[in-house]
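Suppose a colleague, Dr. K., hands you the sequence of a protein chain of 922 amino acids and asks what its three-dimensional shape might be. Before reaching for any lab equipment, you can write down a predicted structure in token form. Begin with the sequence itself:
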Amino acid sequence: MKPLLLLAFLFLTVSGFSQYIYYGNVSDGGIPVPGASICVINSSRCTTSDFDGNYSIEVKIGEQLKISFIGMKTKIIRITNLNVQKNDQTVEYILSDDYSKKLKKPTDSLKISEPSGTFNFNLLDGMEEDYLMKIDRSTDHVYSLRYKNEYHKLSFEASQEMVISSPMRMAHYQKTYAQGKSENGKLIYQSPETNQIFSWGPNVNTLEYSANSSEYYPQGNIVNKKFGNGNSVQLYNPNNFFKNTVDNKYLINTQIEGPKGNFLKINFAYKTGRISIPTSRNNELATSVKYFRNVSQNSKIETILSYDDFENNLPNSNFIVNKIVFANAVTPIHFDNRFASILSNGLQRSYAGFENNPYYLIQHNVDKNKSKTISFNFNHKYAKQDNSNTINTSFQSSEITNTNGQYFYFAGIAEPNFNMRIERFTNFSISDVFNHTIDSHGLVESKIDFRFQERNLARNYFTEFASPNDFPEDSLNQNKLNVLQQRFEVFFNANAFYTFQDILSYYDGLVLKANTNLNYSSTVKGKFMPNFLASAEIRRLFDEQLSLTFSQSYNQVEPSLQNNNLNFNSLRYKVEQFKQLQNNLELITPKNAIPTEEINTNLGLAYNLNYQWNFNFTFYHKRVENLYVPNFNQNIVNWSPDVNYKQNGVEFEIQKTFNDRDLTYNFNFNFTHYKNKVVSLNNNLSRIPFAGFKDVNKNYIVGQPLGVIVGSSYLRDNNQNIIIDDDGFPMEDSDPKILGDPNPDFVVGFFNTFKYKNLTLNLSFDWSQGGQMWNGTQQTLNYYGKSEVTEKQRNNANYVFKGVTQDGSKNTKAVSFYDVSLPVEQNRWTRYGIEGVAEDAIEDATYFRLNSISLSYSNNSYYSPKKLNYTLSFFVNNVFVLSKSKTAFSSNSMFNSLDSGGLDYFNAPMMRSFGSSLTIKF
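The predicted structure, expressed as tokens, is then:
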């Protein structure tokens, strides 16, 4: 098994929660690896590398990327705030002995009774290392030895990984009060037939089952105790809805290696898993064939053919996961959704006609995702002395089918609808790279790359169904969208570096690097995009192990051909319209797109103390122009380059390794602090929302940090006193306000590795200090009367809110949080609507987490390799989290995208994972 060779660089910040688009490349011996899986650990954000190994994924500082590909060792990298540029990254080979180590055993004995020829070698040379397989004697009586590595070798590897995950940090619900509300000064229970959505009714201890059953309550309708049958009302815990998950991954690799180092490698992998929602599942099948051949002493070729087939039956492509979590959460504590989801008349069985049964949503879910990708790569490399030349050709074809929609009798929708979205991608690339080494002190490289991309989007939207039997595709009305996009690109790159010795003192060195690109694109305005990088590094400064680095770069990047996600689709809806959410808008990059520009300045200082301690300090300044964002105009959204911002940051890192015989301890401590600010907007708008809802969202606002949260707040006077209305409750301001900044003050990561003989223990901690988040889930649970807060506080009376009356005097009016003599809509929590006052939902996003623990044992040893090697590992992810919020978590984004990070509205629960893996090689 080979390790992945990674070329990775942070390039473009896309929104405000310290988040980035992380661009990287996965390669194997310089050969791009298409179809590699790249996932953010402890999240559902994943992507795959394209036909030339490139990938991009949304990340934020402190997160870890897990990069894997069948037949190669998994690589985990941590995201820091270092602005490593694409052309400034040195890729170093990570040496692997998985297939190169020879199997050792005692040599065969050799007896020669009398001389019968001549030897052109020392008979003992090499016999201990490679062991002798055969001795041949030629016709002219010259002996030659045949060693094990001169024969074909067959290697196998099999591995299995199992992960069990359980939900954690669940919402806290009340366990006391039934469906209903206050009427005529009393708390009245109201049955599902009344369509009552609230759980502001009487104590369930005052209710019993009756002798009369119904489809809603087969054990007997709920009535007051004096009319009941003596059987107490059974309660249901909404958190029991979620399931533990079991994910499995199986891998089989085989490799045949020839006597000249040529090899054929076949990989097969299968993964299956699910999220915590019942009946969810995803399956992935991947296989690849790789052939390597040494054509001559200076020339080699390599080809890779790979295929990937993926299917997910609950991808949340139309907000279905959040809607299921919502429907489960607001159900009264005595209504069992599990009993049935459909009534005898075909309608949905839910506790109220205006609400959904989560099992009905699951049963009629049409949100599905399927993708198939095939890719081919051919590489030829010629190297001789100081020169090398590599020609690479790649092809990739993929088809992605997404379906989503809303079935008959879904609550909150105007009519059933179905959406089928099919994307077909074709990519072709051919490149040539020439390298020349200069006296082992420098390198000159040139590269030219020709690329062709084609994207064909077909989207059909079906509405107006005559009956449920016609759903999903036999509709009376169809809206079709067909978009064909093509892009031809030429990349020319030239870069060089050279090391000058003994500049300021003996043993010091000056490393100069320069890189320039001139990129042509058929779809960018002006057709050409220039890029450059220049850096200087002084090593062994002042005759110490001290290095100083300065770099400056300028980059222009064209946006992707399209963008489709839930973040901007949800911006059309208010929080109260949550059940109506649909994902049916596309962001199409215009033909003459303006490139995004980024200017980076980096200053780094590194010091090595006694060859044991490594200290690294980096300061950076970044400015981004023409960042692409969704821009709404009369319910039409455009993909527009409207945002300009800047960011300053520092990062400090300490590394240390302790060695004591069989015990080794490594640690890495990383501290990151940054500040960003929107400088200007390229339009006449005062702000641009980019994620969230119409009334609570994250924004780009001039002079403010990236992604500030905007929503409703309490009305205040000039002295910032809250104004109290005539009823004694705070008044809501009609104008939205900036409520919080989701960017943390600093982020700390602490990574530890203990090795004792064949045992390895890894511990990973992360700490994010500061920043705010919006917990809309809590607000809506308060509104429905389902939260633990309303259980504890609904009987509070004689409470005086701090503030002033509308005439400016101090407020002295005492109120009851839930006065049963008044309509339920006037109590403490329902009076402000389902979303409440967003200001109340702003919480501190600080957290400390034991991110992962892993323990592994391997019998593999470099000094005594065995025929059979195995590695057994056990691990736990999300071991524990400490935070001020007991349920919401800033890293658990709302729609599985970092754009919605810092927003919580019935997000899928956070998961704690326990896993094991076993890998066997022989």
